[in-house]
Specification:
Structural class: mainly alpha
Number of domains: 1
Radius of gyration: 15 Å
Shape: globular
CATH class: Mainly Alpha
Number of helices: 9
CATH architecture: Orthogonal Bundle
Bound molecules: calcium ion
Distance between the termini: 14 Å
Number of strands: 4
């Protein structure tokens, strides 16, 4: 596993850029989505999103917060992510599933098949600060069969790939 690549992913999680990942970064990512899709934190979808953010943070802390100070430093992140990805990238990605599922529900209110249209998935990534060209390319990669939609499983698998495939 390329540790430099994983270190570069750190910035994506450190939403407020203060040099460590903590619960606040996950809540900031949730708030960015609520603003993007004009949904309140109090409604069911808002609450599911925050529950997903909390589960994601707990999973991340369980993997990486070695000293238990409720902050994941860059060093802890690299060590924890490398170790867990070596064990199983799919299991690693599962920590993100409830949050990603809630994000899909925001982006796609109809949600017939539990998936999301490509445009909605791009809006999610852009709300998290991903540059628009990179977001478009990432979503195209997820939509393997090119039908213009990505399923929850494809999104979760994409999260694992994000750590293991070069830019
Ligand atoms: Ca931070
Ligand atoms: Ca720590």
């Amino acid at each position: 596993m390329d540790e430099r690549r994983i270190a570069a992913r750190f910035a994506g999680f450190d939403q407020d850029g203060n040099g460590y990942i903590d619960r606040g970064d996950f809540y900031a990512a949730a708030k960015a989505l609520l603003a993007e899709f004009e949904v309140t934190a109090r409604c069911d979808k808002g609450q599911e999103l925050f529950a997903g953010a909390e589960a994601f943070w707990q999973g991340m802390a369980g993997i990486a917060d070695v000293d238990g100070d409720q902050r994941v430093t860059r060093g802890e992140f690299v060590t924890g992510a490398v170790k867990r990805l070596r064990d199983s990238p799919e299991r690693f990605a599962e920590i993100a599933r409830p949050f990603l599922r809630a994000a899909i529900a925001l982006a796609e209110p109809e949600q017939g098949d539990g998936g999301v249209a490509v445009a909605g998935a791009e809006r999610v990534l852009r709300a998290w600060g991903v540059e628009s060209g990179v977001a478009a390319e990432a979503v195209r990669t997820l939509d393997g069969d090119g039908d213009g939609r990505v399923s929850e499983d494809e999104v979760v698998r994409g999260f694992a790939l994000y750590f293991t495939v070069p830019e």
